[in-house]
Amino acid sequence: MHAYQAFINGDWVDAASGARFESEDPFTAKVWATLPRCGEEDVDRAVKAARAALERGPWAEMHPTARGALLRKFGDLIARDADQLALAEVRDNGKLWAEMRGQCGYLPQWFYYFGGLADKVEGAVLPIDKPDMFTYTRHEPVGVVAAITPWNSPLLLLTWKLAPALAAGCTLVIKPSEFTSASTLELMKLVKEAGFPPGVINVVTGFGPDCGAALTNHPGVDKIAFTGGEASGRMIAKGAADTFKRLTLELGGKSAQVIFEDANLENAVKGVVSGIFAATGQTCIAGSRVIIHESLHDAFVAQFTAMAKQARMGDPLDPDTQVGPVTTRPQFARILDCIGIAKSGGAKLVMGGTRATRPECGDGWFIEPTVFTHVTNEMEIAQTEVFGPVLSIITFRTEEDAWAMANDTPYGLAAGVWTQDQARMFRAAKKLRAGMIWTNCYRTVSYMSPFGGFKNSGQGRESGQAAIHEYLETKAVWMDY
Ligand code: NAD
Prior knowledge:
Layout: E1 2-3, E2 6-8, E3 11-13, E4 20-25, E5 30-36, H1 40-55, H2 58-61, H3 64-80, H4 82-93, H5 97-106, H6 108-117, E6 125-126, E7 133-141, E8 144-148, H7 154-168, E9 171-175, H8 182-188, H9 191-194, E10 201-203, H10 208-216, E11 223-227, H11 230-243, E12 246-250, E13 256-259, H12 265-277, E14 289-293, H13 297-309, H14 329-344, E15 348-351, E16 370-373, H15 380-383, E17 390-396, H16 399-407, E18 411-412, E19 414-418, H17 422-431, E20 436-439, E21 454-455, E22 458-459, E23 472-480
Parallel strand pairs: 1-5, 8-9, 8-11, 9-10, 11-12, 13-14, 13-19, 14-17, 16-17, 19-20
Antiparallel strand pairs: 2-3, 4-5, 6-7, 7-23, 12-22, 15-16, 18-21
Helix pairs in contact: 1-10, 3-6, 3-7, 4-5, 4-8, 6-7, 12-13
This protein binds nicotinamide-adenine-dinucleotide.
Residues 148-153, 157, 175-178, 207-209, 212-213, 216, 227-229, 232, 235-236, 250-253, 284, 385, 387, 413, 453, 457-458 line the site of nicotinamide-adenine-dinucleotide.
GO molecular function: oxidoreductase activity, acting on the aldehyde or oxo group of donors, NAD or NADP as acceptor
Active site: 250
Family: Belongs to the aldehyde dehydrogenase family.
C-alpha cells in the first residue's frame, strides 16, 4: 500500500486532522494508495505559503529569465522520470501504459515553451492622446492560483495550468481529483530538485465539496484555473463571483464528428475509433456524436464495428491493450445508466452495451465499446456527456443540416470534419461553434495551440502563447511630465 502525503511550503505533510482516504486501482478494483484528507486548515496553510512566496523571498525577486530556466530544468526532470510518473497514473487512473509513456515524454515541451516565454512578456508605451503625459502598460502575475484538476488526465491537465502560471510568476495551490491524486504527488518530488523555492507550488489532497470548496472560496486566492464537470464549474464560478476571482474553466463536451459523402471512409473510421475509445472515452474532447451523410451510413457502421470489435481490452500495463478500464466506480455506473437511457429513448444498440466480462478484464471496471445507431439529435444520448466508450450515430442530408446538428448542443469544445472538399473545410472552420476544429484528423494537441471551449464548455484558453496572459494582470501607468 502506498501512503502519500500532501505538499505544503516545500514539506511533505499529513492533514492537520490526521484523516486519510483511499484510492482504488481501476484494473484490480482494489485500494492501492491512501492520501491525506485535507480540509480548511490545510488549505489555509497552503494558500498562506503560496502568498508568502508570491510577495517576498527568492521567487518574488527572481528575474523572468531565471524563472524560465527553472521551468526548463523542471521539464528536463520530468523527461528523466517519465516512466515513474506514467506508472503512477496507469495504476491510479487505468490509462494505458503506451499512452501515458508517450504523454509523459511530451509534457516537458510545455515547460520548455512557457519557460521560453517567461522573459518575453512586454508592456507597451502608448501614443496617448493627452499633452505632456507618458503612459505605459506593465504585466504582473495575477497572484495565487488555485489549480483544480479532474481524474481523467491528471498530469496533462495540471501541466496546462502549471507551466503558464509559473512562467507568469504566479504561485499555486493544486487540488487534484480525489480519485487520482498520485501522479500529481509524484510530480511534486521533482519540485525541490528543480530549485523552486518553498511555497511556490503546493498540493492539497481531498474531496471537492470540502477541500476543493475551501480552496476556491479562500480570500487569499486570486485566480481559479479549473478543469472538470459542468456542474462543479458552475458552482465554482458562482462562488468566485463573491470576490471576483479570475477564472479559467475547461468543462465538458459532446463533440461531433461530421462525415461528408466525399470523405476518405477508412481514415474517418480510424479517426472516430480513436476519438471515442482512446482513454476509454473519458476525455472532454471525445468525439461522441457521429453526424454522417445518409449515403455513407451503412458502410461506416459495418467498417467501424468490425474495427471496434477487434479492440483488445485488459491490463493497462500490457503494451498490447487498446481499451482500458473506466477510471472510477461511480463513472462505471454512470456509463451503464447512460446506455440504459439511450435504449429506452429509442436508439438502436448495434454493439456492446454491457460490462466487459472477458477473462483479461478480471474484476476491473470495463465496459464493452458501445455503438448506437438511429439516434436523433434530440435524444438525451445525443445531448448528454457520457464520458465513456459510447458512440451515437446520426444521419444528415444537406451540409446546412450537418452544421446545425453539430452546433445543437449546450457544449462547444471540439468538432471533427471528414471531407476532401477544401472549400468545405474552410466553411466548417467558420460554421462550427467549437474551440478546436479538426479536419481529416482528431484529438491532436500541442503546447503551441490554444485549447478551450465555446458555450458551456468553459471560458479562457490553455496552451498557446496567449495562455500566459490568463495568469497576468495589466496595469496602465500614467506620468505627467
Ligand atoms: P468534477 O467536476 O467532479 O471534479 C473536478 C475537480 O473539481 C476535482 O478535483 C474535484 O474534487 C473538484 N471539485 C468538485 N466539486 C468542487 C467544488 N464544489 N469546489 C471546488 N472543487 C470541486 O469532474 P471530474 O468528474 O473529475 O472530471 C470529468 C469532467 O471533466 C468531465 O465533465 C469532462 O468533460 C471534464 N474535462 C474537461 C476538460 C477540458 O479541458 N475541457 C478536460 C478534461 C475533463
